[in-house]
Amino acid sequence: MYAVGWQKDLWERHGNYFRTREWKYVFVPYGRDELYDLINDPGECVNLAGHSESRPALRDMQDRMARRMEQTKDHALAPLNARRKLTAT
To answer: In order along the chain (89 residues), what is the average pLDDT of each group of 10 residues?
Structure first.
């Protein structure tokens, strides 16, 4: 029997989400992004993407997703980069 360990990061290309043990970021190119604290909200009930105190986590998850999109040459990278510029301000 093989034990399945937790992957450090999880990238779901078709769903446009990126997940770590602590956070889940959902990129919605033409809508509102989603950010969930998986430790304190495992049911993903409270979207923290618009909360100023979650901005550092949002920026980190956007950066991680962008790096993965660059690696996979994902077509949604341009809209994500535009969103990242807005988050940085």
So the answer is: 47 70 89 94 96 95 88 79 77
Look at the domain 10-88 and name its fold. Answer: Arylsulfatase, C-terminal domain (3.30.1120)
CB atoms within 10 A of CB 72: 11
What global pTM score does this model have? 0.77
Each domain of the chain, given as residue ranges in start order, spans 10-88
Distance (Å, whole) CA 84 – CA 87:
5
Contact 18, 57 (CB under 8 A): no
Which residues 6+ apart lie within 8 Å of 87 measured at CB? 55, 58, 59, 62
Task: Beginning with the edge strand found earlier in the chain, give each strand of the sheet holding 23-26 in spatial order.
Answer: 10-12, 17-19, 23-26, 34-37
